[in-house]
């Protein structure tokens, strides 16, 4: 038996309401370019809109002009989507709360998640959206996941409750030590003062 190895999210498709609500939210609020439009090939009564969330992958929305929002909050039963999180730059993150407030969009306020900062709000159909920004940049040649797994191992070894900045900093240092060679015989910390 062999795995079916995934290599990233190809796209996420959501059931939307009407076309204009979808465009106004995904492009007009979240800034995702509207890049492709065609009928839903499995349902002739629906449209299929495609948006680029910023990494070249896709968020797609099935639309129907007769469908309106029916939830204050989308279902969170087992098997349902709880929320979708999108990455934003630190510069954008610093503006998120003010920009949501300016639009009158109710939100959670900033949440410190140890390794990232987040804010939550609902789309017009009740889907919970998270905007998140990492508190770190991975070393050259490493991914955010590389740092996260190293920080997790450190947190568990120390018996800490959750990942914090100290775990991230130590993880980054270890990844650099493993990946980057040096001419020094001793890489240990020094005090030149």
From TrEMBL:
A molecular function GO annotation: dioxygenase activity
EC number(s) stated in the UniProt entry for this protein: 1.13.11.-
Residue ranges occupied by any VOC domain in the UniProt entry: 8-134
InterPro entries per record: Extradiol_RC_dioxygenase, Glyas_Bleomycin-R_OHBP_Dase, Glyas_Fos-R_dOase_dom, VOC_core
Keywords linked to the UniProt accession: Dioxygenase, Oxidoreductase
A Pfam family this chain is assigned to: Glyoxalase
Domain of life: Bacteria
Class of this enzyme: oxidoreductase
Keyword Oxidoreductase: yes
Protein name, UniProt field: Putative ring-cleaving dioxygenase MhqA
Species, as recorded: Roseivivax jejudonensis
């Amino acid at each position: 038996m062999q795995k079916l190895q995934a290599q990233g999210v190809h796209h996420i498709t959501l059931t939307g309401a009407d076309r204009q609500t979808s465009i106004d939210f995904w492009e007009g609020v979240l800034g995702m370019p509207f890049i492709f439009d065609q009928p839903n090939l499995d349902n002739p009564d629906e449209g299929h809109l495609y948006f680029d969330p910023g990494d070249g992958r896709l968020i797609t929305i099935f639309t129907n002009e007769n469908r309106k929002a029916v939830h204050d909050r989308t279902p969170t039963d087992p098997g349902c989507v709880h929320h979708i999180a999108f990455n934003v730059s630190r510069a954008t993150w610093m503006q998120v709360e003010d920009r949501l407030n300016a639009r009158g969009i109710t939100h959670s306020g900033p949440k410190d998640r140890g390794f990232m900062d987040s804010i939550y709000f609902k789309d017009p159909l009740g889907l919970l959206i998270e905007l998140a920004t990492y508190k770190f940049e991975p070393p050259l040649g490493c991914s955010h996941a590389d740092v996260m797994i190293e920080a997790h191992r450190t947190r568990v070894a120390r018996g800490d409750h959750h990942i914090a900045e100290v775990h991230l900093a130590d993880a980054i240092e270890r990844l650099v030590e493993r990946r980057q060679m040096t001419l020094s015989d001793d890489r240990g910390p020094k005090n030149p003062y």
